[in-house]
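Problem 3 from the worked examples.
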Amino acid sequence: MSAQILSGKEVAAAVRAEAAERVAALRERGKSVGLATVLVGEDPASEVYVRSKHRAAEKAGMMSFDYHLPADATQSDVEAQVRVLNGDDRVDGMIVQMPLPAGLDGNRAVETIDPAKDADGLHPFNLGQLALERGHLRPATPSGIMRMFDHYGIDTAGKLAVIVGRSFLVGKPMALLLGAKGVDATVVQAHSRTRDLEDLTRNADILIAAIGRPQFITGKQIKPGAVVVDVGINRTEAGMVGDVDFHSAVAIAGAITPVPGGVGLMTVATLLANTVTAAELALAG
C-alpha cells in the first residue's frame, strides 16, 4: 500500500485565491488590507519565512510592512515596535517572527499584540476564545491542517486523533480544534515523555506529529491506513525532513503530508486569511 499524498500546494493556492478575492472586495469598499512582520536579528531561516509571507501577501493584493530590528534589540524595543503597529491603521494583521534571539521573551512579545491584529492567532485572548469555541482569529498552522482535512474529505467524527506535541503553537490548539463540536474527534495529547507512546500512535486513526524531532515517528508506529500529518520542519545534513520518517511511513499510512510541500504552505496561506478576517472585522466595527 502507498499512501495518498496530502499536498499543501493545491489547498494553499485555493486559500490564497480566496484571500485575494476578499482583499479585492474590501478595496472596493475603500478598505485596504495590511500585514506587518517584526523580525529580530539575522536568523537565515526566519528571514526566508518572512520573505515568503510578504511575497504571498503582496500577491494577494495586501500592503506589506517589514520591520527588522537588530539582534541586540531589547525586550522593550520589540514591544515598543509592536505597540506602534497596534496603533497603525494601515496594519490589520501582524506577527512577531519566532524564534526571538536568546534573552528575549517571545510570549511577552505576542501578548503585546492587539488581539484584533493577531494574525497568528496566538495571543492568550484568541487562544481563550478558541477554547470556548468562539472567536475568529485561530492559530495558523492548526487551522491550515483543518482546511486540508476539509479539502481532501478526511472524516474526523468519532476518530481517534493522537497529537504528539503539546506546544501552544500547534499541539494544544490542534487538540481544541479536533475536539470541537462538529469536528468530533476523540483527542489524545501525547509528547516525548508519554509512556508507551508507540502503543498510542499505532491505534491512532489520525496521527499528528508536532514534536520538533527529525523523523521521530516511523512506519512501525503508525496504524495501517491512518492519516498522518507531519508538522515538523527540521534541517539536517540530508536536507529538510519532518518529524515523521516519510519513507517508512508512506508504505503504511492511508494518507500523509510531505515535508516540504505540506503543512508549511498552509501556515502562510492561513496567516493571510486571518489578516483579511481581521480587516473585515475592523471595517464592521
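Problem 4, a separate protein:
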Amino acid sequence: MILNKETAQKTAELLLQINAIKLQPQKPFTWASGWKSPIYCDNRITLSYPIIRNFLRENLAKQIETIYGKPDVIVGVATGAIGIGALVADVLNLPFCYVRPEAKKHGRQNKIEGHIVKGQSAIVIEDLISTGKSSLLAVDTLKETGIQVKGMLAIFTYGFEIAEDNFKNAAVSLHTLSDYKNLLQLAEKSNYITASEADVLANWRTNPDTWGQ
C-alpha cells in the first residue's frame, strides 16, 4: 500500500536518476528465477548516494511512526535491506538486527543477527518486494522466536498479484514508498519511456512468468 503519492513519485524519480531501477523493454533482463523482465531494480545502489539514502531513511522512519508507532526493534532482511534498515533504526534511535535467509553454517549458527528478545515488537524493512516469499520467510523466523511483527515497509514493490496474495494470506501488513504503477506514471510523464514502451511494461506486470517467451 502507498501512503503518500508525492513521496511515491519522488522515490521513483530518484531510483531512475541513479539507475537503481533500469527500464529496458526492448532489451529485457533475465532474473535468477528465469523470468524475462523489462525492468531491473537494485536499491542497494541508493546507499552510495547520501542525499537519496537520507530521503529514503527519513520517509521510511516517518511512515513507521505514522502507520504503526515506534516498535521496540527495526529488523532488516539480509542482505539487501541491512544498510537501509540500520539507517532507519538510527533515525528512530532504536535497536537494529537482521534476519538471514538461512542459519550460518559455522560459529553460533545464527539466523537472526543482533539482540532481540521474545515479546518485543518489530517493524521489518525490505529494499524490494517481488513475490514476497523471501520477505515473509524473515517474518516467519521472527515469529518463531516470539517476536511481534507489526508490519513491513519497503522501498519499492512490483505490485504482483501473487505478492499481494502472499502478504494477505500471511496476515502481514505491507507499505512501500513507491511501486510499479507510480514508476510507470513518472517515467512516461518525464519522457524516460514512450507511450508504447509504457504499454509493454504494463503488460509485463500482468504476466511476468510467461512474458517474453
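Solution to problem 4. The radius of gyration is 17 Å. The longest strand covers residues 148-157.
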